[in-house]
Amino acid sequence: MADGTTLESTSPAAGIAPARFPFTAEVEAATAPIWNKLKSRVTPLEWRLHAPLIAEINRLKREKNAVILAHNYMTPEIFHGVGDYVGDSLGLAREAARSDAAVIVQAGVHFMAETSKVLCPDKTVLIPDLLAGCSLASSITAADVRMIKARYPGVPVVTYVNTTAEVKAETDICCTSANAVQVVEQAAREWGVDRVILIPDEFLARNVARQTAVKIIAWAGRCEVHERFTGADIAELRAAYPGAQILAHPECPTDVIEASDFTGSTAAMSDFVATRKPAQVVLITECSMADNVAVDAPETEFVRPCNLCPHMKRISLENIYEALRHDRYEVTVDAAVIERARAAVQRMIDLPPPAVPARYDLVKARHHVDVELI
Ligand code: 13P
Ligand code: SF4
Asked: Ligand 1 centroid vs 177 CA: distance in angstroms?
């Protein structure tokens, strides 16, 4: 394949000369182990474009003492090609906290980069595209949280990590979909109360409410990717693929979770496939998840209904390369915000990690529980 194909960087950034990297024998040799992993998912044509950038990014990482934290929703050439740490939001936050690299490149969305900055204020944290947002993070502001606290004095505020640092700064403790039930119960115990505010994802809050005796007060934020799946979609999939295991992310509506075989964070879904090796599986989540898991699960057939996250998809090999080359875009958070947000994130990080990625109990998930919507 060393055919001298050249790549023109497609970075949207103005004023930067396109980089040209040939697909040389040297590049081919350096990236051979990654190609061996990815060749079931990536065509040789695509690989000739990806490989030179992967080699160059991996070289720049060494030169700059940088690590790339890549979320499970990154495309396979990023996830398997340049990610040093890959996983769900909780796993990436833990990795950021223990990293000794000088530079963290967040291959994910802006709130994840802010979380890394909050946990590592002395490091340079870069995001390849500042517009990689999240519908949940933009559904609530710090002023909203102050209003909520005034309305429910003495009730602890648990905030999903899919929020800005300013929102986290108003928060008592953070959670992710991997530990939301654990965090809600911990907060209720610590505060000596029987109800907890869990914001901003309404569906996560409704799904968590069914897993615990703690009463939940919720905010009407939605993930624009997961809210689009419906119970009717699951019924259709069941009819078409009767033997398939259906795994759904807890940001999905309750009727989707009720009809599924398993619910957990992206890491928990990945763990399910790796350990149970189902013959056929459907991942009710963002599209790249199945692509990434499938690379390590050749014995499993993946049925692929999916919704793309337009924010996650803003990250590409091209802009990761530009980020490393030009130290951009640096994510900054006000020092006072860092201090307050850090307390909430650190409280979550300090909880004992679950022995296996937390799973939602589907018997409980099928029983309706009321939540109070703010
Ligand atoms: P996880 O924490 O499960 O990786 O989810 C993050 C996310 O943004 C899902 O939409
Ligand atoms: Fe946000 Fe949903 Fe995209 Fe995750 S998938 S980053 S929750 S919009």
From this structure: 7
Could you tell me the CA-to-CA distances from 205 to 57, 166, 228 in Å, in that order? 39, 21, 17
Q: Using the atom order of ligand 2, give the atom closest to the CA of residue 223.
A: 2
**251 C-alpha to center of ligand 1: Å?**
8
In this structure, which ligand is nearest to the CA of 249? 1
Question: Distance from the CA of 319 to the center of ligand 2, in angstroms?
Answer: 20
For residue 37, the domain's CATH number is 3.40.50.10800
Give the pLDDT band (50/70/90) at residue 356: low
Q: Among the atoms of ligand 1, which is closest to the Cα of residue 176?
A: 2
- In a domain, residue 152? The reply is no
Q: Whose CA is nearest to atom 6 of ligand 2?
A: 134
- Residue 39 sits in which domain range? 6-133+311-326
Residue nearest atom 6 in ligand 1 by C-alpha distance: 89
Query: Which atom of ligand 2 is closest in space to residue 73's alpha carbon?
Result: 5
Per residue in 160-212, pLDDT (tens digit) is 999 999 999 999 999 999 999 999 999 999 999 999 999 999 999 999 999 99
- Write the DSSP string, 26-67: HHHHHTHHHHHHHTTTS-HHHHHHHHHHHHHHHHHHHHHTEE
Is residue 354, in this structure, part of any structural domain at all?
no
d(CA 205, CA 187): 14
- Please state the domain count of the chain: 1
What's the gap between Cα 262 and its chain centre? 18
Distance 309 CA to ligand 2 centre (A): 6
User: Alpha-carbon Rg of the chain, whole angstroms?
Assistant: 21
pLDDT, mean of residues 48-53: 95
Please state, in angstroms and as integers, the Cα–Cα distance from residue 252 to each residue in 73, 205, 225, 258, following that order.
Answer: 16, 11, 9, 10
Identify whether 39 is part of a domain: yes
Taking 3-state DSSP, the helix, strand and coil percentages for the chain, each rounded to the nearest 5, stand at 45, 15, 40
| Residue 242 lies inside a defined structural domain of this protein | no
**Using alpha carbons only, what angle is made at residue 311 by residues 309 and 316, rounded to the nearest 5 degrees?**
100
